Structures are given as structure tokens and as C-alpha cells.
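so my prof wants the structure for this chain in the C-alpha cells format not the other one, which i didnt know existed until like an hour ago. anyway here's the sequence
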Amino acid sequence: MNDQAEAPFGNFTTVRRALDVWDQLAGPVAEALKGWDAPEAARSVLYVDTDPAKADTAVFSEAYDVPLDASANCVVVAAKRGGDTTLAACLALAGTRVDVNGVVRRHLAARKASFAPVDTAVGATGMEYGGITPVGLPAAWPLLIDAAVVAAPFVLVGSGRRRGKLILPGQALAGLPGAEILTGLAA
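here's what i got, hopefully its the right format
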């Protein structure tokens, strides 16, 4: 039996259903997929095996023939107000930039917002830097998703590790814990 699936875009040697290769994913990502309260969404997630040396967006896009409007980056931000810091994640198409100092800061009612330090992002998510994904983030975090990501038929995101990526319907991302869809989050 051939367990190989077909990716909706890109040039990948190995494409499998993510639930069939959960041992290739970061722990929080595997647990989120196995426990997702939308089983049909979990079954729709594909895993593509990729070279970790080609994980950075521009290199990845060229190496695997993935259009930037089919790839999304997940960044962790730290929003500060008074003595409190709130961590949140933002998801935007790869060819855009998240408006951290404007839209994110205002939406989180923060005095200041910035990208979280790498050690904070990695420690809080349990994922590798360069592979952080919206699937498996701490459930209490706000997950701010640019509306263009959800509108995409399929989107490539991290797998929680630098090796490998996930492909899933854009609309499925709206069902993740803490998801808030924002128009104009990125430009």
C-alpha cells in the first residue's frame, strides 16, 4: 500500500498525512493534531519532509517551488503593559510583514509589543526556532491570524521542527485554540 499523499503545491519527495508521522513532529504539534477537536481538520494536515538547512523562507520557497502566498510564517510576540507580559503568536503569509507595533500592540491592548526573544519563544512553545507553527501553541495564547492566510486554499507552515513542514487548508487554521482572524494584521 502506498502511504504517499499528494501536496497541493510545491516539489516534495516525501508527502504523508501528518497523523501518520506524528513522531516526526515536535511533541506539542503531535499532541495537538492527535487531540484536535476537529478530527476532519487533523486528517487534512499533510507533512512534507524537507532539509532543515533550507528552512528559511526565501531559500525554502526557491528550493521547493512554494509560492510565498502559499506559505505562512508564525512569529511569537511579547506584549507588555505595566509589569505584565503577554505572549501571543501571529501568522501571516510569507511575503508580508506582521504589524507588531501597530495592529498587534493595539489588539493586545499593550503599551509595547515586540518579537519575543528566541529563547523565550522556543522555551514557551516547545518547538525549534525556525519551525514554530500555530498548531500546538499553548492554548491560552492569542493566535492572531491575518485574514489572507485563512482565505488561502492551502497554507504551508512549520512542523515544530526545522526539518519538515505542514500543509493544511487555510480555513482549518481558524479552528485552532485562541485563533482570532484580523484583516490588516500584515502587509
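also thought this was worth mentioning. Residues 22 and 30 are 5 Å apart (CA to CA).
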